[in-house]
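Researcher: Can you fold this with tryptophanyl-5'AMP in place?
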Amino acid sequence: MTPFFNMSDSPRKTVLTCAQPTGNLHLGNYFGAVRNWTSYLDDHECFFGIVDQHAITTPYVPAELRQSVYRTLALYISCGLDPSRCHLFLQSQITGHTELAWILGCLCPLGQLERMTQFKEKSQREDVGFVGAGLLFYPVLMAADILLYNADVVPVGEDQKQHLELCRDLAIKFNATYSNTFRVPDVAIPKAGARIRSLQSPDKKMSKSDPNQSGCVYLLDPPEVIRKKIMSAVTDSSREIRASAEKPGITNLLNILSASTGQTVEALEAAHDGLAYGEFKAVVADAVIACLAPIQARFAEIGEDRSYLDNVLKEGSEVAQKRAYRLLSKVYRKAGFIERSR
Ligand code: TYM
């Protein structure tokens, strides 16, 4: 590693954020999260995690999880997270996340976890079958992911806001209980793309777990699949291309077009006034296909290169582990644990 990564005397602020390696990343993950992460590369110390320990809180297949980790890593890089300018790490390879989660969990009111929207949604889904305690504890592990690196800023999509509030509460509570230790991180939610909705049920967010997969555009979907999904997006019975609460389908398409082209929703409304919905959908499909083309091209180059990807993880995890140990030792001391010899 170059001295650039020497954390101890880095004056730069720390950014940390993560995504779950469940299946493929989709348009919501890209516009709401990963694309915005690249804006921190120049002037922040950046840690971007792949949180495989979170991914086992709902039923999963181990061999698929491993594949998904590599795919997510290759997608991170293909989306512009240049490993020479940030630390890409795998949660399960770092000692500290689950250890800190335990300590934070002992400070966390049970009722606050039970009130989490995502817990309620996921635990009540009919296809879930069994609700493990890990699903309830999930936001505490997420708080540990962030606090372990003493992050200043956590860029996420809107759906993670409540989890971030819990993280901030836990940082404040730990500091009040054991003395000042953690920074209370700021949350950064993008202006455009913070909540991309399902193309089939625009009242819900676009999600990997959507039972209707045609509502979700994946970053690696071939152009013809992207076009088909967008052309069959649910809209409404009027003809107006305008963003409003009564028109969630068209609003979502306008948001997707805005995120794909960088133009404002207002400018797009004016530019497409009078177009039939079918014609407008074709414009959105073209824009999304063009926006994803460079990502898909880069993925084709590196997606199967296991030795390159392993090396990226090795380098990222080394730096992450150093930083994590430092904070965990401090926390253990404050919690009254006797330090172990490594
Ligand atoms: P995950 O894996 O569901 O999503 C990764 C990122 O994508 C954003 N996102 C969206 N943004 C806009 N529209 C959507 N439809 C959409 N769907 C997802 C999410 O807000 C997120 O930023 N709990 C987290 C992972 C996590 C984490 C962390 C994040 C674990 N530890 C520490 C930040 C810091 C999650 O499940 O994200």
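Model: Folded with tryptophanyl-5'AMP in place. Residues 1-8 have pLDDT under 50 and may be disordered.
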